[in-house]
Amino acid sequence: MSDRTFILAVLHLGGHKGSRLHVELKRWLLSAAFLIAAPAQAASPHSDVELRGRVLAERNCAMCHAIGRAGASPNSAAPPFRDLGRRYPVDDLAEALAEGIITGHPAMPEFRFSPAEVNDLIHYLRTIQTHEAAFAQVPVIR
After folding, report:
1. Which residue has the higher pLDDT, 46 or 82?
2. Residue 74 class from Cβ within 10 Å (0-12 exposed, 13-18 middle, 19+ buried)?
3. Is 82 exposed, middle or buried (0-12, 13-18, 19+ CB in 10 A)?
4. Per-chain mean pLDDT for the chain
5. Which residues contact 127 (CB under 8 A, 6 or more apart)?
6. Domain extents for the chain?
7. pLDDT in tens, 70-91
8. Could you please report the per-residue DSSP string of the chain?
9. Whole-number Å distance between alpha carbons of 62 and 50
């Protein structure tokens, strides 16, 4: 049974079109549909950015780095992406990703990403940082 068929069946059970029960049931169903759809629409842009960033990491980096929230890097000299924030603020990688990272682990090729790709990759990196790494990004001022 499709969602539309279900809604029509519920409305039919709720009384004749125009009755108070029918109107209240219709109002309730529309409110419920809005509440269910709203969070999915709000999360969509972030999810798309994260997904594009993850795809970039899988395509370009996963051969050496652990790119997720768990697991060891295939190349022991390549740090897991979830721990990059322990070394330096992840946002500081944006310039290097755009201009070309030429340092890193010894086997690392040079990569250059477009501004949109840099945005996607940085956003993804932010989402996977370990709890400790997130606090390591905040400088201590004395």
Report:
1. 82
2. exposed
3. buried
4. 75
5. 50
6. 3-136
7. 999 999 989 999 999 998 899 9
8. --HHHHHHHHHHHT-STTSHHHHHHHHHHHHHHHHHHHHHHHHHHHHHHHHHHHHHHHHHTTTTS--SSSS--SSTTSPPGGGHHHHS-GGGHHHHHHH-B--SSTTPPPB---HHHHHHHHHHHHHH--HHHHHHTSPP--
9. 16
Class of domain 3-136: mainly alpha
Residue found by looking up tokens 């972030």 in the block: 46
Q: Return the structure tokens found at 89.
A: 């603020």
User: Is the whole model's pTM more than 0.85, yes or no?
Assistant: no
End-to-end CA distance of the chain: 65
Task: Check: CB of residue 61 under 8 Å from CB of residue 117.
Answer: no
